[in-house]
Amino acid sequence: MKVRKAVIPVAGLGTRFLPASKAIPKEMLTIVDRPTIQYIVEEVVAAGIEQIILVTSQGKSAIENHFDYDFHLDAVLYEKKKTALLEEMRHLANLIDIVSVRQKKPLGLGHAIWSARNVVGNEPFVVLLGDDLVLSEQPCCKQMLNIFDEVKESVVAVQQVPKDETYQYGIVEGQHIRDRVIKIDRMVEKPAPGTTKSDMAIIGRYILQPEIFGLLEKTTPGHGGEIQLTDALLALSNQRGMYAYEFEGTRFDAGDKLGYLKAIIAFALRHPDIGENFSDHIKHVAAQL
Ligand code: UTP
């Protein structure tokens, strides 16, 4: 079945980025010349997805406005004959069909995804976390859709992490069926040191079968009263099977201060307008350290 819809949860409180994220959603913080969320939406568009379901909450309307048509701005740019900018703004407003649903309380990622159930319906869908960026030749979402077409079951994106950092992630264990593709046997959320041999960590990209919604509904709240996605993922992998895909590219957790700064550097170095000058500047700074 063709994957047509992408769910992007952006309803979290973003406490790691306070005070910056107090009045501005962390997904709207800028990486060079566009907000984090725009890179994610562009990745989805490049993968051929037809509709995005944003899971939002109070105070996140700037995200919806960013992808909306702005009559006033349009008129001003037209009057001032700023044609290139005018075209860019119109293109942004027409990127893709975006609908939003509300997560009424920040009850965790699992609950955020569950909030999109009525709009997704009974079909497989992609999930991209609103603060997780992947820099790659082929969009990570497209890479995952190619694997989904092959295995026809849920796929989670994974990356190798240092052994002493596995406790920070959901870790998958299983057998390689070929290069970069693992059939999952077991999944452990934030494993205590020494409890898993695997160093394959789940990042913020998933393709999920719709049975996940029923499983999320049955999931009992865990730490902090939050409904964890990993518990339902584990149940889904036992029920239908699930694959982990070691994507090609570099992932940045832009919801974390250090991850955000690393993302800015990586994206700025590749930027067509400023990349070269920025690279010279970085070399100059590095030479002074
Ligand atoms: P994070 O783990 O980054 O959580 O969520 P957070 O609450 O936003 O941030 P911190 O940890 O307090 O700094 C990953 C993604 O899931 C969304 C977030 O908006 C983010 O894009 N999310 C998280 C929700 O939509 N709802 C939730 O209840 C939790």
Automatic annotation (TrEMBL):
The keyword Nucleotidyltransferase applies. It catalyses: alpha-D-glucose 1-phosphate + UTP + H(+) = UDP-alpha-D-glucose + diphosphate. It comes from the Bacteria. Residues 5-263 form the Nucleotidyl transferase domain. Its EC number is 2.7.7.9. One of its GO terms (molecular function) is UTP:glucose-1-phosphate uridylyltransferase activity. Keywords: Nucleotidyltransferase, Transferase. InterPro entries: GalU_uridylyltTrfase_bac/arc, NTP_transferase_dom, Nucleotide-diphossugar_trans. GO terms for biological process: UDP-alpha-D-glucose metabolic process. SUPFAM superfamilies: Nucleotide-diphospho-sugar transferases. The keyword Ubl conjugation does not apply. Belongs to the UDPGP type 2 family. This is UTP--glucose-1-phosphate uridylyltransferase.
